[in-house]
Amino acid sequence: MKYFEANFDGLVGPTHNYAGLSVGNVASQNNANNQSKPKQAALQGLQKMKALADLGMVQGVLAPQERPDVFTLRRLGFSGSDANVIQQAAKQAPAVLRAVCSASSMWTANAATISPSRDTLDGKIHFTPANLTNKFHRSLEPATTGRILAAMFNDARYFVHHTHLPDNDHFGDEGAANHTRLCADYGQPGVEVFVFGRAAFDPSRPAPKKYPARQSLESCQAVARLHGLSDDKVVYIQQNPEVIDQGVFHNDVIAVGNQNVLFYHQQAFLDSATKLAELKSKFGAETPLYLIEVLDSEVTVQQAIQTYLFNTQVITLPCGDMAIIAPTECRNHPTVSAYLAELTERGTPIRQVHYHDVKQSMQNGGGPACLRLRVAMSEQEKQAVNPNVLMTDELFVTMNQWVERHYRDVLTERDLADPALLVENRTALDALTKILNLGSVYQFQRD
Ligand code: SUG
């Protein structure tokens, strides 16, 4: 049976803005309070989805969330009509209002961890939404993410949906941003690599000092248990705390894997040699495993953070070659673009580089790989996916029209207090749930 990897990209929501909410994420901090361009952001995202579909990849759309999140504001004591709730929050707690307006669900690498059916005990694809406890604005996402995923993968014969892990930093889970699957072929059992920032129940182990470690070892172990993964096909690697303190807030800012390639920076991991030896042995010797290590002397950690060299998608094209989907920031950086050009000539499976402009997302610390959630699946499993979410020429046209109709050109902090923004958001999402056939996944549709 044919197996492949599908990518589900987060559609940028109508409240896309720069609020400086993510301590430890350098781009988010540096662009705080800049004017954002929600329409342009959403169109940039759609362009990338269409480009991947045109390369012959299976590409899907993951819907955004309702913002501002007035249900959370009500939980926090604001009351009256929705307009009153927003206006009170703007006056009394502007920082809270900024947080409940974030369009951060667009970074769907953080939506969930997914284990394909070839890896799981029951032979089904398992989904665990990430609880995203480390950042308040992101901790508002998992319940709705779970409903959206269930509406996209709605067939109990093939798909198992777990509840997100307990909402506490001890089980802080950031989903696929810290998870990579290596395999000889998508249809073969793979080795699932979980990268964590700290061991929450063992403070004697190394941890970053300046910035938070968002992902705990214990959350990785819980997800592996829930998904029924076998110990001899799982590797837990600790992220180097020193790079977290330099702004590498997720592993996918310093490493990316696909099939038999792991592309990573020299400084990415703790105990690198031992852990990579474990990975090699669990991967097996039948297929060559390409461990492509980028040295400090080639590209520094700072250059990797500036350009998002590792927040690239490494994809396998229908012809069998691998391509790197990189942000234009990589092309514009002489050292990094020279590195990538040379990499395609090195005799590894990576043969092509494609650049995409996702600057609106990049300015909040989200590159091409942050914007996508990967699901390796068989043709039969694909038949069970909600067909309306899969990118086609028609859906691309419809989605562009939908964005043009519902999105503002620019957004500043002052606009977040405008109650009309909520009405616009709900109108847009009502239309979107029909286009993508999602049913009632949003709170306002359920009450
Ligand atoms: O969680 N930025 C996101 C970026 C997530 C990138 N994802 C991956 N690397 N997989 C975050 O830090 C910034 C929002 C703001 O500041 O307005 C933000 O949430």
Describe the fold and architecture.
By secondary structure, the protein is of the alpha/beta class. The chain has one domain (3-67, 102-442): L-arginine/glycine Amidinotransferase, Chain A (5-stranded Propeller), CATH 3.75.10. 34% of the residues lie in helices and 17% in strands. The chain contains 18 helices and 15 strands. It has helices at 26-30, 38-54, 70-75, 82-92, 94-100, 136-139, 142-152, 217-226, 241-244, 272-283, 301-307, 328-331, 334-343, 359-362, 379-383, 393-406, 419-435, 443-446; strands at residues 3-10, 58-62, 112-115, 125-129, 159-161, 179-182, 191-196, 234-238, 255-258, 261-265, 290-294, 313-316, 322-327, 350-356, 372-378. Strands 2-1-15 form a three-stranded mixed β-sheet, sandwiched between helices. The protein has a three-stranded mixed β-sheet with strand order 3-4-5. Helix 8 links the parallel strand 7 (191-196) and strand 8 (234-238). Helix 16 (393-406) packs antiparallel against helix 17 (419-435). The model has no long low-confidence stretch (mean pLDDT 98).
SSE diagram, text form:
Elements (H helix, E strand, L loop, with lengths): L2 E8 L15 H5 L7 H17 L3 E5 L7 H6 L6 H11 L1 H7 L11 E4 L9 E5 L6 H4 L2 H11 L6 E3 L17 E4 L8 E6 L20 H10 L7 E5 L2 H4 L10 E4 L2 E5 L6 H12 L6 E5 L6 H7 L5 E4 L5 E6 H4 L2 H10 L6 E7 L2 H4 L9 E7 H5 L9 H14 L12 H17 L7 H4 L1
Helix pairs in contact: 2-16, 4-5, 16-17
